[in-house]
Amino acid sequence: MIAFGRPMRRRFLLERGTDFLNHGSFGTTPRVVLAAAQRWRLRMEANPDRFLRHVLPGALRAAAGRLARFLHAKEQEVVFVENATSGVNAVLRSLEFRPGDEILATTHTYNAVRQTIREVCRRSGAKLVEARIELPIEDEKYLEESIVNKFNKRTRLLVLDHISSPTGLIFPVKRLAALARARGARILVDGAHAPGQLALDIPSLGVDWYAGNCHKWLFAPKGCGFLWARRNAQAGIHPPVISHGYGKGFAAEFDWTGTRDFSSWLALPDALDFFEAFRPARIRAYCHELVTRSAREVSNAWQTECDGPARLHGSLMAVRLPEPLQRRDPVRLMAEWLDRHRVVAPVMAIDGVLWARISAQVYNLPVDYTRLLELVARR
Ligand SMILES: Cc1ncc(COP(=O)(O)O)c(C=O)c1O
Fold first, then answer.
1. How far does residue 117's CA lie from ligand 1's centre (Å)?
2. Domain count, the chain
3. What's the domain range around 242?
4. Residue 360 Cα to ligand 1 middle (Å)
5. CB of 110 sitting under 6 A from ligand 1
6. Could you read off the pLDDT of 259-317 as tens digits, one per residue?
7. Of all atoms in ligand 1, which is nearest to the CA of residue 215?
8. Of 225, 277, 299, 371, which is most buried with the most CB atoms under 10 A?
9. Quick check: CB of 263 below 6 Å from ligand 1?
10. pTM, rounded to two decimals
């Protein structure tokens, strides 16, 4: 089996000379999967009518079925969406809230999701309540308690990250879902980062809706997200764009939301072939070991700290920037690393403190993290 690191990197289009430590933000897709997507595009253009009217419906459901098996779900529970943002929007904007209702999220909730909740609250009179998560965290219990303490009888919905965006911390979704259910709240999981980083059995989590991405950690082309909805939580959930399938059932509503390029969804089986060929458990173990070891080394060199214990991470982890850099503008700093030093790692402000988030993927090696480490240590 091909070795991870440089031989694997040749299977991607990543430019030479750049230390790419940010698989997390957008993912990057292997050549072989891009070629598969292109084949679908060519097939469509050869006869758009035949393709979109006769080939697409079956091909789309076949791809959704493959994804459903991967998630241990049923085909009719899984629909494609553009991305996790879109899946979360579909649910949040379909649900009905009343003045006084509360939607519970955390201070680490992805900002696009927070903005969607804000809009839903503005229209309905519901209230956004945020559980505060302070870094560094010591254990899973802290995450659980921070959220549980915010429940009350007005809590209608818990919006929970499976893996949080600024840190890569894995939240105890199953436990929290049980606690939320016991208090009469419904649960929407933002799993943007989870598929691929974690072995997922979505129905076993006990949640109502789960939005995820395949273009991050499953190697699909960009624009490949999904929404899973438990059978009895599908009624009334509509895609952000209403089209011909309105009222005809969950899959029918989402499968067609207007003419588009369907190739990223149709190439998903090829992305899963790629992922499975290199053995998911092997990929996860490699990335986890690489990112947690590198984060520790970086934090030692910077004389700072990591966001929490290694065991609460998959393939992403955040390291606090050293003091002199805490006064920098995070957007400019990241641009400087990217353009001048060719190191790609996002810098994010959490509670007014700057953290760099690093990723590990099968094309990374330990040496990829040394430029980042030295770059900051030099100052
Ligand atoms: C927790 C979380 N939710 C949602 C998103 C948005 O993903 P997308 O842009 O693919 O919708 C991200 C992106 O990093 C994320 O980390």
1. 15
2. 2
3. 35-273
4. 17
5. yes
6. 999 999 999 999 999 999 999 999 999 999 999 999 999 999 999 999 999 999 999 99
7. 10
8. 225
9. no
10. 0.98
* Residue 192, ligand 1, Cβ within 6 A: yes
* Rounded distance from Cα 54 to ligand 1 centre (Å): 33
User: Which CATH number do you get for residue 152?
Assistant: 3.40.640.10
Strand partners, 228: 78, 210
Q: Where a domain ends, among 273, 303, 326? A: 273
CA 163 / ligand 1 centre spacing (Å): 10
Residue 82 beta carbon below 6 angstroms from any ligand 1 atom: no
- Report pLDDT digits (tens) over 185-224: 999 999 999 999 999 999 999 999 999 999 999 999 999 9
Q: For residue 317, give the CATH number of its domain.
A: 3.90.1150.10
Taking Cα atoms as reference points, which of 255, 249, 210, 215 lies closest to residue 230? 210
Ligand 1 close to Cβ of residue 85 (< 6 A): yes
Q: Is residue 30 part of a domain?
A: no
Same domain, residue pair 115 and 260: yes
To test the ligand 1 pocket, which listed residue (80, 113, 317) has its Cβ within 8 A of the most ligand atoms?
Answer: 113
Domain final residue pick, 273, 306, 330 = 273
Average pLDDT, integer, range 170-179: 98
Q: What is the mean pLDDT of residues 234-244?
A: 97
232 alpha carbon to ligand 1 midpoint, in Å? 26
